[in-house]
Design goal:
One of its GO terms (molecular function) is extracellular ligand-gated monoatomic ion channel activity. The chain is 33% helix and 29% strand. By secondary structure, it is an alpha+beta fold. It folds into two domains: 208 residues, Distorted Sandwich (Acetylcholine Binding Protein, Chain: A), CATH 2.70.170; 150 residues, Neurotransmitter-gated ion-channel transmembrane domain (Methane Monooxygenase Hydroxylase, Chain G, domain 1), CATH 1.20.58. The radius of gyration is 31 Å and the shape is rod-shaped.
């Protein structure tokens, strides 16, 4: 359940149009490729004037301002409407309900027309996956109008607070829905053949991916494959079976990567998960290189000297293994802290908390 109120103002020398839009409910189903959203909205339009009557309402207000208020009915087919459209809708609106009402104030201010627009549909969203699987995604609805920016400009209503009902989120098993919303304004001519500029208001909520599945089914398995390379060093340095074991582990990691890739989004850039798996393959290649080098040195130097080189190289690989996981983990923790929308004060303790949260809690 997500509530957002925004405002649209049209200002000329004698009239002011206010559009209050309520982002009423969110019931999101993020599909495999993370591109479609199923959401329910509520939009409110309010029109008012500083003069005797607003142009769209003049036909009903000029009849008899002292008449009974119930007699005043707004006819959208005969009067001015904002002609709102949704830019990033996928297909057509599944459910829609539109209501017009006239709001009267107790003072001398003119009446206001309120449009209540409720609709449910699928919406398209391009997600950025560089931080996958610790990514935070924006779920956006783009509202525009067929009228030019000279007639109507959509802005956010700062007088109403926004809220999110996380209990109505359908994908709670895979995503965490943040309890806040944001909006920003834009302009476009892309949707129209002519060069007329049209106002756009983008309304966003955010979700964070739960990484538990990827930690236990991918990262942990790759970590075990890397760790098993150190078990091969129990084999004598001059024995070729050590190299065979590491090559087998390398091929196992490659096969595992190809199988896992089938269930992940197809993108042209590397994600954090891709970087970790590639780093694991590079580390396995380094181990295989070390095995081959030690086997070659065994033909040149005495076995006692080769064992010294072997111990030093194993220690170096162990340091690389440990440092990589520490540095990579801290880097991800910093990244998560930067994109974290809760804006908590950063401390070293807070960084460790975020690290534990994303690596163990989910």
């Amino acid at each position: 359940m997500l509530e957002v109120e925004t405002v649209n103002s049209k200002k000329t020398k004698d009239e002011n149009v206010k559009l209050a839009k309520v982002f009423k409910a969110l019931s999101s189903n993020i599909e495999k490729n993370n591109e479609l959203l199923d959401q329910l909205f509520e939009l409110t339009l309010e029109s008012e004037s500083n003069h005797q009557g607003l142009a769209p309402l003049r036909s009903i207000l000029s009849k008899d301002l002292s008449a009974a208020r119930e007699d005043k009915v707004f006819e959208p087919s005969m009067m001015w409407t904002p002609k709102l459209i949704i830019l990033n809708i996928d297909g057509s609106i599944e459910e829609e309900h539109i209501d017009y009402s006239i709001l009267h104030s107790n003072d001398d201010n003119p009446p206001r027309v309120q449009l209540m627009w409720r609709f449910k549909a699928f919406f398209k969203e391009n997600l950025e996956l560089q931080h996958f699987p610790v990514d935070v995604q924006d779920l956006t609805i783009s509202i525009s109008t067929e009228k030019s920016i000279h007639e109507i400009e959509i802005i956010e209503d700062q007088s109403s607070l926004s809220s999110v009902n996380t209990q109505a989120f359908l994908d709670a098993s895979e995503w965490n829905l943040y309890n806040h919303t944001e909006s920003y304004r834009d302009k476009t001519t892309v949707e129209y053949a002519r060069s007329t500029v049209h106002s756009i208001l983008h309304i966003q909520c955010r979700v964070a991916r739960k990484i538990g599945y990827f930690v236990w089914n991918i990262i942990f398995i790759v970590f075990l494959i890397i760790g098993l390379t150190f078990a091969s060093y129990s084999i004598e340095v001059d024995n070729g079976d050590r190299l065979a074991v590491n090559i087998t582990l390398f091929l196992t990691a490659v096969t595992f990567k190809l199988v896992v890739k089938q269930s992940l989004p197809t993108i042209s850039y590397l994600t954090y998960l891709d970087l970790y798996v590639l780093a694991a393959l590079i580390f396995l290649a380094l181990n295989a290189t070390q095995n081959a080098a030690m086997k070659s040195l065994a033909y040149i130097y005495q076995l006692k000297e080769v064992k010294i080189y072997d111990r030093n190289s194993i220690a170096s690989l162990a340091v690389i293994f440990i440092l990589f996981h520490i540095v990579f983990g801290i880097y991800i923790a910093f990244t998560v802290r930067i994109i974290d929308r809760q804006q908590t004060r950063f401390t070293f303790k807070g960084m460790i908390t975020i690290f534990v949260k994303f690596y163990f809690y989910y």
